[in-house]
Amino acid sequence: MMWRSTPIRLFSVGVFLGAAFLTLAGYWLLTTRGVGKEAGSIDVTMYAEQFAFSPSRITVKKGQRINLRLISKDVTHGIFIDGYDIKEEIVPGHPARVSFVADRSGKIQIRCAVICGPLHPFMLGEIVVEPNTPFWSASLGLFLLAGVIAGFGGTGSKRGSDNPHPRHREAGLDLLGFSWVRKLFAWRGLQFTLMIPGLAILALAILSGFWGTPIGAKNFSMIFVWVLWWGVLVVFFLPFAARAWCAACPLPAAGEWLSRGAFVEKGEHSFGLELRWPRFLRNRWLSNIGLTLVLLFGLIITTNPWVTALFIISLMLAALLFHLVFERRAFCRYACPIGGFLGLYAMLSPLQLRSKDDAVCRRCQYKSCYRGSTVASEETGGRPAYPCPLFEFTSVMDRNADCILCSECIKACPYDNIALRTRPFFADLLNSKKWRMDEAWLALIMLGGGLANLAVKLGHWGWLKEWANLQETKGFLLYGLVFLFWTVGVVPGIHWVVSWLSRTLSGRADLTTKAIFIGYAYALVPLSLMIWVAFTLSFVLPNLSYVASVVSDPFGWGVDLLGTREQPWSPYLTGWLPYIQVAALALGLGLTVKMGKQITVRLVGEGNQAVRAVLPFGFSSAVMTILFLALFRG
Amino acid sequence: MKRAEIVAGVIVLLIVVVLPASLLYPHFFDKTPHAKPGEILLVARTYERGGWSPPEIRVKKGQKVRIRILAEDVTHSFQLMHLGIDTGPIFTGTTKVVEFIPSQVGKFPFYCNTRCSTRHENLMGLLIVEN
Question: How many CB atoms sit inside 10 A of residue A209's CB?
Answer without folding.
Answer: 26
